[in-house]
Design goal:
The protein is α+β, with helices and mostly antiparallel strands. 48% of the residues lie in helices and 14% in strands.
């Protein structure tokens, strides 16, 4: 949390706390004033028989001076209170409001209704509130710092948890996968794309890969016989298929129909490498181009393949 945000959070907490404090103070002050007015009303009610009030029904003017003196003595006793009595019925002391609120209550006797007017001081701000505001500001700052610490700790814990739950991403090399169990070709980063191969092209392609890994500079021409070492490797993979439980009628002749075998291999690779055409330079047995001498010079060997470019399942 930067300083600007910390200041904003502190100010928000301080404003909310100060507002709650002032509202509670105002409610408490109003309740206190209600109690004082109730006491004053009780006092006046007890003194009413001795007060010479005017009475219109009896056409009695009353003793205004005596009632005014009574109000002055009463207000002297209320000097420390935020409430003063301004008038009883038509007798008034003509006190100045000075921002005070005027409030009228009524007492009922057997023959008349007596109006009592109060002047009430209501202060939203007192000198003592300065110390309260300073305390609230300090507490707001401490609370904001505490919230920042909790938030920072939670973020670190969350980041650590994510780091533990999710292994770090590494760049996985894209390579060809040959599965002898299912007799399919696939790519290690997308198991959804697969291409099946028959026994003969599958075994021949595995043999070709192993042969070319050991002899990267060899030239394999279709016009010449397939090397015996390559045939032996193809037969080795064929026997491995039988060990894995695949039903095979007879051992294929890997020297016959070489072009057809290579075409089937290329077709399967076209399906698997549809999203990785750049990898054809590694896995694709090159096609012959041209006629005559150009074809005789052509090699279907995999000159760019290495041992870690291939993954064989069931080998």
């Amino acid at each position: 949390m930067n300083n600007k945000r910390l200041f904003g959070v502190t100010l928000l907490i301080f404003s909310a706390a100060l507002l709650m404090f002032k509202l509670s103070s105002y409610v408490q002050q109003a309740q206190h004033n209600d109690l004082i007015m109730a006491d004053i009303e009780n006092r006046i009610a007890l003194d009413l028989p001795r007060l010479d009030l005017s009475n219109r029904f009896l056409k009695h003017s009353g003793n205004h001076d005596a009632i005014a003196g009574y109000l002055q003595r009463l207000n002297m006793q209320l000097k420390q209170q935020p409430i003063q009595v301004n008038s009883i019925n038509d007798v008034s002391l003509a006190l100045t409001n000075n921002g005070r609120e005027s409030w009228t209550e009524y007492l009922e006797t057997s023959d008349q209704k007596v109006a009592i007017t109060f002047l009430i001081e209501t202060h939203w701000w007192h000198i003592s509130d300065i110390y309260t505001a300073i305390t609230l500001l300090l507490l707001s700052f401490l609370f904001a710092k505490w919230a920042e610490l909790i938030n920072r700790t939670s973020l670190k814990h969350l980041a650590l948890t994510e780091q533990i739950e999710q292994p770090p991403l590494v760049n996985v090399k894209v390579k060809l996968v040959i599965d002898l169990q299912d007799k399919v070709l696939a790519i290690n980063n997308n198991a959804g794309i697969k291409a099946g191969l028959a026994n003969k092209p599958l075994c021949f392609y595995l043999a070709l890969i192993e042969f070319c890994v050991e002899r990267p500079d060899v030239a394999l021409n279709q016009n010449k016989d397939v090397p015996d070492e390559l045939i032996e490797l193809a037969n080795k993979y064929f026997y491995r298929l039988t060990q894995l439980g695949h039903t095979i009628r007879k051992r294929p002749n890997f020297t016959n129909s070489l072009e057809k075998t290579l075409s089937e291999i290329r077709a399967a690779l076209d399906e698997v490498l549809i999203e990785h055409s750049q990898l054809k330079e590694i896995y694709y047995p090159p096609k012959a181009h041209g006629e005559g001498s150009r074809s005789r010079l052509h090699s279907y060997g995999l000159s760019n393949i290495k041992a870690d470019d291939i993954e064989v399942i069931g080998k």
